[in-house]
Amino acid sequence: MGVVDALSGAFGGLGDRIESVRMSMAPSVEVSPGSTLSGRETRALIEKLSRFTPADLHRTQPNLRAVVDFRARNVAQLGLHVFRPVEQGRERDRTSAAARVLANPNPAQTGYQLMYSLVADMDLYDEAFWVVLNAPGILSIRPLPVADVVERHGSEWNGTLSVDVLLDGKTVRIPAENLIHFRGYSPAYGHKGSSPIEALRDTLTEQVAAQAYRLSVWRNGGLISSYISRPSGAPGWSKEALARFKQDMREFRSGGVQSGGMPLLEDGMKIEAGALNSKEQQYVEAAQLSLATVARTYHVNPAMLGETGGVTYANMREFRKSLYGETLGPLLRMVEDHLNTRLLPMLGVEDGSYFEFNVKEKLRGSFEEEADVLSTATGSGAWMTVNEARATQNLQPVPNGDQVLQPLNMAALGATDTPDGDPAGGKAATVEAKSALVSVKAEPEETQPARIQDLIESHSRRQQAAVTAALNSKADTPWWDGDRWDRELSADLLTLSKVVTAQIGAKTAAQLGYEGDYDLQATVAFLTAVAETRAHMLNEGTRQALEAVVEGTAPEGKTPEDVFTELRESRGAMWGASIAAALAGFAAVEAGRQVHRSGRDTTKTWVVRSKNPRHTHAAMNGQTVGINEKFSNGSDWPGDSKSLPVSEVANCQCSVEITTEDPS
Questions:
Q1: Burial, 566: exposed, middle or buried (Cβ in 10 Å; 0-12, 13-18, 19+)?
Q2: How far apart (Å, rounded) are the C-alpha atoms in residues 355 and 348?
Q3: pLDDT digits (tens, 9 = 90+) for 315-359
Q4: d(CA 546, CA 561)
Q5: Cα–Cα 20 to 30 A to 477, which of 105, 185, 268, 376?
Q6: Are 654 and 635 within 8 A, CB to CB?
Q7: How far apart are alpha carbons 643 and 640 in whole angstroms?
Q8: pTM of the entire structure?
Q9: DSSP characters over 553-615
Q10: DSSP structure class, residue 109
Q11: Quick check: 104 and 141 in contact, CB under 8 A?
């Protein structure tokens, strides 16, 4: 029988058997009823604790379990992506065997569960084993229970390490060509790692003993810390009276008929405190010290586990950064190296592809913050090319995107040529001002941003109902219908855009002294294109946020409902203000063009309204060009989504001022 057949049979019902092996009952410790731990029982307890396996301790010790589960969950929820190199950067591989096998490693586990078990095994045993089966009709990765690896053969030094593992009551040999062995550092440089459990055993033993003591106290009705005294001159008791008194006192212990009551004592008898109380014994402090010790051993900040003393929102953000840096970063690098050097060759991948954890998703700021940073990096004071910035977002390069851009107003004196004559079409042209001019600044009506936000909220509720139903459905259907959402939202935006631009356009034209009517019909085709672009931008942001939740790369605890709540609240308000400003700018420019066609020279000026604008927009503040020319960033007006990328459009509050000859 071949190794594939042997393993396929042995791994039947893998999940249940691994769970049974790992969660086997730890040795129990019996405590004599009616007493606390005696010296004999304490020694027996310590002796049995010394035989606890890492699995026993993980099952019974809350501090250890909290730390191990915390690390395992935060690694398992990361997206593990496969990338292949391309001519300009890299592209994500979603279809190869390498990408498929980690998404669906075996019938008993998901990719999340496989990675969870890997990290938990490393934390408990400092080693882990994967069996890779790659044969016709079979492509799977299965973890081995570390405790059931009974014998090792060969050597890792020459790549011949194989293991015998007990599966389903039978010993199965896993050959080197099917085995991936993850392990940590061991001073002996052997075939095994050095389990952190050994360094923690004394701490965990102390916690178990302290817990057993506290349980024994409560088992005795909480009376073990007290005793009853009699005056030295009190008359003696007969044997029968003493036995009766002892029996009466036992009734007040746990399980007695008087448990929880107060005994009636003879004259002169007192209940004395005979031991330290729980505060003096520092139960809480000892438990906190135990958690801190376990957390330090695994390089986890206790604040990430709920120890909130002195913790603020600001330093919690820094703790999250350090989690995927100093805490989990070395482990992630070790796993990536094993997968790239061992797993990929087993799968026959030789095109330079590689695995990479999507740590960036956990550390990135909001969509608007990241867009602003990339805008700065490629705009004013640029240090990245457009294509380099696109590569960070796993986007394909664009033509003419391989040069670092430098705005003209940032160039050194004399470093640019003075153009002769009129500028070519499409370039910014500064228009000489006339002596008698009238200017109108584009401003949205006070209620228009709120109307757009209401439209987005209505759209999000329809979207949430459909997406939630699809995610909860057992049918194998896509949960996102991008064409539908773009179509519905763009139609709604177009309807409202006509109303908004008609109001602002007519008002602007009148203020400029234009005697004709504002021609809305001439703008419908362009408004349609703008509505489609804006709808796709907004929906794409929602899709990316939902995909992060579905793939487990979103911040811990974030749900699809949270994504739609953000869309209705913070994102909805931002997009409402941004779209309203853009529509006002468009309507004002269109009114200026209609004035210009009547024979009057007309210009437009970029106006920054925000107190904290993008660097690229701040550099353009006050730039004036002809009404039919483009600004230096290639746009026709602020918020021009047909000409500008989303990083220049999102949350843009800039306005435009239209200036023309005074007709009077």
A1: middle
A2: 14
A3: 666 777 788 888 899 999 999 999 999 999 999 887 789 999 988
A4: 9
A5: 105
A6: no
A7: 6
A8: 0.50
A9: -SSTT--HHHHHHHHHTHHHHHHHHHHHHHHHHHHHHHHHHHHHHTT--EEEEEE---SS--H
A10: B
A11: no
